[in-house]
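Students often ask why we bother encoding 3D structure as a string. The short answer is that it lets us treat folding as translation between two languages. Here is a chain of 378 residues written in the first language.
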Amino acid sequence: MPCPFRPSAAELKAIHEDVSELADIQRTLADNHANLQVPDRVAHQYQIAGGPVVMRIADALPPNLTGIGLFVPGTEHFGIGRVSTGLGTPHSEAQPDFLGLRFSFLADGRQIDFLSINDPAAPTDTHTEFVDLLFATGHASAADGPFQLAEEQARLIAALTKRMGLVGATRTVAHVVRQTFRTFRSSTAVQPYWTGIFEAGGSVGKFSFVPEADDNHSPGLHAAADHLTRDWRARQKAGDINYTVYWIPFVDEKRTSTSNMADAWQEDGKSEVATIRFPAADLATPDARLWAALAAEMVARPGNWLADTAGKIGEPPTAFEIARKAAYQLSQRGRNALELSDYQDVFGKRKIGAALRKELEGRLEDKAQRGHVSEATS
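And here it is in the second language, the structure alphabet:
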């Protein structure tokens, strides 16, 4: 198996410097887009759904996972889930884009986060290329007018070419177009998702989330701008939305690369390790709105994880994931996200207390008054 990357102080500093312009990109997005009245996420800004989830760990687990963090056989954990579109600006859900699925739990007093997208590969091979892509989306967010989508794409290609050169930009755009076309032809956000690379018990691997109901189809030629949000709300109102969680172990660099992040992993050796349930709920109720606000306002980042029983491994196992962790920290600092201490008791009490309720209501009201858009419908 590959040796997990253990960066020196100098290497860690260099990675943080590689993503340091995330704060500038965050401000650029807010400056360029009329519906962003405060700094928001650099990616996955637009929320489709958010609220309580329940995770049940399987009775039998791979040896490297057993007993680490959440992964105690047969246990159950309360958490917060979030579903989102990939861009950092409000936009029609009918556009080509990534979708994101995030789950957050608590283990041994630490937040545990699973961040995933609806494609088995990352948008770029390296973290510096990913920053280039984020820079280009920030530049593209200034597009406006009747041909906005075409202008966005032209601006993105121009910005990527400036950063990567023509060959690199062409390769990246072709890869991203293929990935985002999955959402363009989807009628629902209830579909498979894949995480980045985790370390657990001395091994590395990925997690995938596969829905119990697989009935995604073409949305047709005239999908509504909020069709994914409407579909999710209807499904959760009708019943539970269930996912099976799989661990996909590293095999070798050819089949499960830890360096070429834009290559999808082969999944022949995957094993079922848990189930996650979004309980049936009417997401239009005031209480559900507060849970959705918590899902939007709380922190979540790569690196919120326990890789060993002692909890001594402080960084993710690849440079790409370390960079993502640093980027998320910058983005969350820039949007004044709630920290774990603000909502930690929610995981045990399974309810939102008075102080947190007041804080969330205040944030919702402030953004509403400013005209800040972060979801499809109110």
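Translate back mentally: The domain at 9-121+186-370 is CATH 2.40.180.10 (Catalase HpII,  Chain A, domain 1). Keep this in mind for the problem set.
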